[in-house]
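WARN  no MSA supplied for this record, continuing single-sequence
INFO  ligand: (2S,3S)-3-hydroxy-2-methylbutanoyl-COA
INFO  echoing inputs
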Amino acid sequence: MVVTTERHGKTGLIVVDNPPVNALSQAVRSGILEAVQTLDADPEIDVIALLAEGRTFIAGADIREFSAPPSEPLLPAVAAAIVGSATPVVCVIHGTALGGGFEMALASHARVALAGAKVGLPETTLGIIPGAGGTQRAPRLAGIVATADLVISGKPISAGEALKKGLVDRVVEGTPREAALAAAEAVRDGSLATRRTDALPPAEPAPDEIAGWRAELAARPGTFALEQAVSALEASSGPIEDGLATERLLFETCRASPERAARVHIFFAEREASKVPELKRAEPRPIARVGVIGGGTMGAGIAAACLLSGYDVTMVERDDEGAARGRATVEGVLDGSVKRGRLSADKRANMAFSAGSDFADLADCDLVIEAAFEDMAVKKELFGRLGEVARADAVLATNTSYLDVDEIAAASGRAGDVVGLHFFSPAYVMKLLEVVVGEKTAPDVVATAFTVAKRLGKIAVWSGVGDGFIGNRIFLAYRRTADIMMEDGASPYDIDRALVAWGLPMGPYQAADFAGQDIGWATRKRRAATRDPNERYVAIADKVCERGWFGRKTGRGFYLYPEGAKSGVPDPEVLALIEEERRAKGIVPRNFTDEEIVNRILCTMVNEGARAVDAGVARQASDVDVVMVNGYGFPRFRGGPMKAADIAGLPGILDDLKRFAADDATAFAPARLIEECVAAGRPLV
Ligand code: T1G
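INFO  complex generated
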């Protein structure tokens, strides 16, 4: 039974038990409704307490039900029964009371939170809005502005903050059941006041704030749900019945939106990505001490990420100066975490972190992560030594971002112990981790990698060995498409602007200037030897680099960065350089609309992602979305390139691929997966 009732004297308990997060499935909604009606009708019961078993109170509606037609009882009806109960209803919150879960609490006549609990209204992160009274009841308790913080940020707040805002009435210690029985007594003796939220006065209007939010949201893409949420909050200054009706209408509008489909897709895709079969087939090796080779940006970032997740860390650099630099970088990150309140001072003081230049220090590590210079010879030499020095049961990982993991593994002499862990910089911030599985990588090593990733708070994605793995493979492909459009007539500034308007945080040229053009230049030079001479090659970026225009760090790249300027400005000399290249190739420039720019880039991403699936480098199409959203800034509100293609209409994407392939088969010759999906009439994800 997902909902049971208990009678303790004159107290009636409604206990929800629907693992893993007590989501409000149809059975839970129906169970709560029936329990409230039954206990309210019982003359022996004078207080009802709603609580949940397991690690958290109700974490929201059951998101899996969103793609199906709504089923009775709808959540607003359950909330109304709680509000309308003649018997006072107290809600006990533990863990994370989110979305519909917090709305059950808001409909209750009093709210008690366990210390350490959190409450939130994150619906807009799923492309919807609170649909069971959250936008009407929370403002009646805490005001429109405080509620907007929850709804617009989508982030939960602590029980203490909620108490300050009037969203909960008490914060207590103990178990949910103890708190429920104590709260019932407090209601009886009058020390815990109960009130119907709906009977409270409407929220104070907040016209200026609402106008400000509307202006801010209108300036950026992917804010459909947020805009509806602001309108729902605005309605909380009117009669509750009207406000609830307005909220429901706006909720249904969001539920039918492509943004909701995209955001819910990526929510589940991120969780699916880490359910690799190796986790079922093998036990992960226990990891407590992590060795990190290299104290540069990546090495120090990885060391900090491991320390922040409670691992002991031994960092090894080539010499003592390098080790000192690496240590200083790590200490800086940790100090920053303490300053931001993300790390307690005593936890910081008790961290086990050593940095030195003696390779033998790695001998007692359970996992060693190599983050040295991106050069195959360097990595092979290191893995040759590591194969000797590391403990026999240690896992050996390379952080390479594109080199052949099988070749590196072979150099270790124990390829079964070797796996790729491709972190994204900064490694202690970026959620994505590509776990690159070599031909000989043992299943328990893969299981270990995914277990470590979870502890690091990463979103891990399985990748096979292939140039660029999943993300860089797609990034290089769409950068090539952008370069070709640039040579054929689009300016780099048009391309960046069109893609930013579509939802990317920055376009490829802004990104290259930000990261440093020299990095891409080195990659292109590395690939020059194996490049297909018949394949079209655009040398514009090389010409920019030959002038030493590497981007922000040199004051100019594709853009000029005047002293103190917030962002780059177009550079007439770059435009002249592009014109020169076009003339040299006899290209007559043509116009590109923003729509064509976006379409060609999206088609390239989808096609290259599908090719990665065809090649077995990506396990499934949804993993491509997880990588692009979490590592490359693909807009979350579009769900990732594969979901965006499904939403745009896959047959149309295939038609465009065939059309574009006429002049560029390298990028656009359709992947088998896309042709198969269109032929079968099924979506990519
Ligand atoms: N519905 C269905 N399944 C859910 C779920 C949900 N709301 N939340 C989590 N799961 C599954 C998840 O897929 C995973 O499954 C398992 O639970 C553990 O989740 C009317 C309409 C609660 C903070 O947005 O933020 O209420 O992979 O891996 O890291 O206004 O889950 O094990 O098979 O994330 O400890 C609003 C979403 C819904 C909360 C726990 N609520 N969930 O994090 O575990 S809309 C949310 C979370 C709504 C009303 C509207 C997190 C968590 P599996 P997990 P976690």
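The CA atoms of residues 503 and 635 lie 5 Å apart.
INFO  checksum written, moving to next record
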